[in-house]
Amino acid sequence: MALTALLGVTTPAVAASEGGNALAYPETEMLAAFRAACTEIGDFGKAREAALSQGWAEIAADESTAGGRLVLFGEAMVQKNPDVTMLKGPLLRRDVAGRELFLAISGAKVDGNIAKGCRMYDFTADKPLGSNALVAFMGRPANASNMPLPGFTVESWTPGIANGHMEFEAAHVAQGTTLPANV
Asked: CB under 8 Å to 41, separation ≥6 — which residues?
């Protein structure tokens, strides 16, 4: 079984304040919220309980939120492939330092192999988390950094954030970027 913790589709580094001064994005708080919720992803029940104990609230995966729409999109993509079985986990929501974040815990089974993941999203981001914050969080530099598509960046660490985790990724999709349907 592969355990992967993925951080965000969009994560900003800077947000404007009312006075026009730039405020640092709460990287430390966001990463702490992620670690607290995504360490136990091998067991969806434990992951859910850990997230709830850290202030996350379970919500419905429906069209009413960006997080719900993303989960529904992912489920629709999996349904198109008869060789993949979706392993459903909870969708959760939390405000961190004034930012609305979503956490999706899920997995897939393909040819007897199981992969489970925990993904946190900030859909209003305009820039990726800073590399310094990510290195401090992981305790080491990324193993890989790339831009698989214009406007889409990914930094990867192998192994991930906890024992048994295969990988940790921090991804950012620039606002306005159009991604292919299979991404």
From this structure: 3, 4, 5, 47, 105, 116, 117, 118, 165
* Residue 142 contacts residue 155 (beta carbons within 8 Å): yes
Q: Which burial class, exposed, middle or buried, applies to 35 when counting CB atoms under 10 A from its CB (0-12, 13-18, 19+)?
A: middle
Handedness of CA 35, 106, 78, 124 (dihedral sign): negative
What type of residue sits at position 180?
P
Phi, psi of 132 (to 5 degrees): -60, -40
- Confidence (pLDDT) at 52: 95
User: Which DSSP state fits 76?
Assistant: H
pLDDT digits (tens, 9 = 90+) for 72-121: 988 888 889 999 998 999 999 999 888 899 999 988 899 988 888 888 88
- b/e string for 170-183 if b means 16 or more Cβ within 10 A? bbbbeeeeeeeeee
